[in-house]
Amino acid sequence: MEVECLALKDLTSVGKSFSVPKEDGRQGEKENVCLERRRSTPLKPSESGVPVFLVSRKASTSDLAHITPIKCAGLAEPWSPTANLKVLISAASPDIRDREMKKVLFRPIENDVDQVVDSEPAVEDAEVEDPTQFEGAFEEEDAEKKPSRKEKSLGLLCQKFLALYPDDPPAHSPVWISLDEVATNLGVERRRIYDIVNVLESLTIVGRMAKNSYTWYGRQRLWSTLEVLQRRGREQGYHLQMDLPAEARRSGLSREEDGGDGDSGNAGGNRKDKSLRIMSQKFVMLFLVSKTQTVTLDAAAKVLIEESQDSSSHSKYKTKVRRLYDIANVLTSLELIRKVHVREERARKPAFRWLGPVKFSSSGKMESSLDVAQSEAAASEDFRKGKMARHSSFTVTPAAAGVQRQVSSAPSSPRHHLAGIQNHSLDYSRTTTTNGPACQLQCGGSTDSCLSVPLYAQLTHTASSSLPPASTQPCPEHLLVPSPHCLAYLPSLSHPSVVMLYKPPEQQEWAPEGQRSAKMESEDEGKRRRVSGEGEEEEEAVLKKKSKSGSETSEKIGAQSQREAAMFSETCNTSAVSWPSGQQRATESRAGNSIGENTQPSHYLYVPNSAGLNNFNFLIPAGQPAANMSLPPSSVPTMALPFVLVPSAALSHYPLVAGGVQQTQTSDNPSGLRFSLPTMMSPAAFMVGTAPHSVMEASDVSVQHLPSPVAPELGRHHVSAAGTPRSPAGPRQNVGVSTPEPSTPHTPKETTASSSKEFFQTPGTLGSVVSAVPAARKRGSAQRRLDVGHSAAP
DNA sequence: GAATCCCGCCACAGG
DNA sequence: CCTGTGGCGGGATTC
């Protein structure tokens, strides 16, 4: 946290950012790469403020090389990453600013709140153990303090990771995640990302698509997954164990699992059996079936050990506990659990208390405090089950095995997605917008690589942060919310393209996840099931899947995307919008179709970039009212046309106008775009993206000439630079966007990270992000250290 | 001294 | 064989 704090400071106070170069001995170490960078950029780890997001590998690589390392401190360069942040912040309404500051500064990542719980039944939250822990951060400042261990914690890292993506991404527009990119951007070793991703995957927050490629589902499926886990936990008798006294626990462990595992068991089984993923699911199950919803590490470790049939040697125990800490950190970041202490017998034992929902309706609804959800996600659940089933231990449920991870390394693309895509007929006419099915912009390039979407921006209003469970219905809040739009940069396409998804106001309501998933996924499920047969064979199923073709799907997708691209339609509603220069072919399409009509109303703007995205670097929110940021979501009407893509070249000609964005403002005019180019010009305008999710670092982008996918969030997120007249960003057209707004509130708390770069950057690392990316990949995993540093180094 | 958990070696697995 | 994954546990930090 400290880091963030610093960052914030930096933001506010100009000079600092550049000030102290820090370097610590440690830094040199692999993970936090970029020593050099660091040096060059005084910014301490924290500095890198704006998370940059991903560039496609391709682009990144080449571009990166060129990239200038971070600017020198001395530079007036407005666009240093930091500058960017500053701009954003300044631009942001005070509220936002404050909010973020709080989040960043005060919110301890891991174990933030440590509470002491009385013995199990009486778990209660006690005081926070270390309220002050984060304070230190402020002081340090530039100090070269080596990033403390905490700063590098998995929990913090996970938060950063989560902050990059929306909690509740539109169902139809999956966000692709490239592990390499994430690792690079966060400035950590890939290995660490695996830890996070494995846990997230266990909860279906992400899904693995192919090697190095994951899809971000956000919390859409989370609730259903939890429900499934709860069920499984019960089936496996975890509830019995959890309720038993400690001693008793051991004896009675679930045999089902053991037995069930049987195969998996391969004694020793495949590694998969010991997978962090599996452990994570089991760990979660324990919470879900526990009456007290509090699980001590000790108990969990024991349970897990038994299941694994490992002899419970002490070392095994220790190892399990270590893993559980890893898992717990991620879950804590997700705010699904919180650390507490349970007083048992003699000492107080570390434990975690479940903060998530515990009751689910059979339908998959979650009845929890959170709220209601309605969902018909039954199908989707199955889907999830399947996924979970990967492990033999989960055999219990017959759920579709097929669903399981699609592959290990094979580039399998999840079928459900594909299905969705294929099925949809895209309707390019805007008129029907409301019905737009989700367009699955999966754009996969024809290449496997499919998409990594560097940025993903979603408009969500803050309120949305506490999203309803995935399958739930549209929550009222959402309705109010500005339509979420997201921008995706699809590097994998032959030509990098930008796709912007947006939902017309009318359609604001998100389709209930459940519905979507149910339909799409269910189909898949069905297929898979057929293939795999019952749940028991999950393992097998997996194999089968693997064998399956990911490639096909990807290709299909790619084809589709191209097709879509081809469909360039100006006709679309763009009515209001005039493409800046007709040059680009932009298509605004709306998918029409199949999936919940109203629910997924999305339109998307697809900009094939034959020429190279460079030409289309900017996405400008058409009507972002700068002011709106502070306004309640409801107050902000969403415009029909959220943003305009402006070729970068074009922009250069325009004078920067301060506050332009604001001018544009107002939503009402659906049709009429109110923006003026000049307005757009203002840096601020560019900053639009949603905060956490889409963060792209301006500097990086610009340097790279990558198309900056900006994700403008409609609504308030856009910070219009308005206020900030110019950050001298002039040169940097590409500014990535960053959103200050923590729109993604993972939890009620609003976890979202601040947009500050620092937040995303691992403390020891530098913004290095930029550079290294591709290179890293080449190296062996073990060796692959992000060498951002050197790439970055001038 | 115990609790945490970062870090990265190294084995396994897919291609 | 190379690279992606990820198990594992030594040992550094933090409590």
UniProtKB/TrEMBL annotation:
Highest taxon above the source species: Eukaryota
Predominantly, its location class is: nucleus
- For the keyword Transferase, the answer is no
Protein keywords:
Activator, Cell cycle, DNA-binding, Nucleus, Repressor, Transcription, Transcription regulation
SUPFAM superfamilies in UniProt: Winged helix' DNA-binding domain
SMART domains, per the entry = E2F_TDP
Q: Which InterPro entries match?
A: E2F, E2F_WHTH_DNA-bd_dom, WH-like_DNA-bd_sf, WH_DNA-bd_sf
Acidic residues: which segments have biased composition?
118-142
Please, one GO biological process term? motor neuron axon guidance
- The residues covered by the E2F/DP family winged-helix DNA-binding domain are 149-218, 271-356
Keyword check for DNA damage, yes or no.
no
Instruction: Give residue spans, biased composition: Polar residues.
Output: 570-595, 735-765
Q: Where is the composition biased (Basic and acidic residues)?
A: 516-533
Q: Which residue intervals make up region (Disordered)?
A: 118-150, 250-272, 395-416, 507-595, 707-768, 775-794
Q: Where in the cell is it found?
A: Nucleus
- List GO terms (cellular component aspect): RNA polymerase II transcription regulator complex
GO MF term set: DNA-binding transcription factor activity, RNA polymerase II-specific; RNA polymerase II cis-regulatory region sequence-specific DNA binding
Q: Which family does it belong to?
A: Belongs to the E2F/DP family.
Described function:
Atypical E2F transcription factor that participates in various processes such as angiogenesis and polyploidization of specialized cells. Mainly acts as a transcription repressor that binds DNA independently of DP proteins and specifically recognizes the E2 recognition site 5'-TTTC[CG]CGC-3'. Directly represses transcription of classical E2F transcription factors such as e2f1. Acts as a regulator of S-phase by recognizing and binding the E2-related site 5'-TTCCCGCC-3' and mediating repression of G1/S-regulated genes.
Protein's UniProt name: Transcription factor E2F7
Please name the source species. Answer: Xiphophorus maculatus (Southern platyfish)
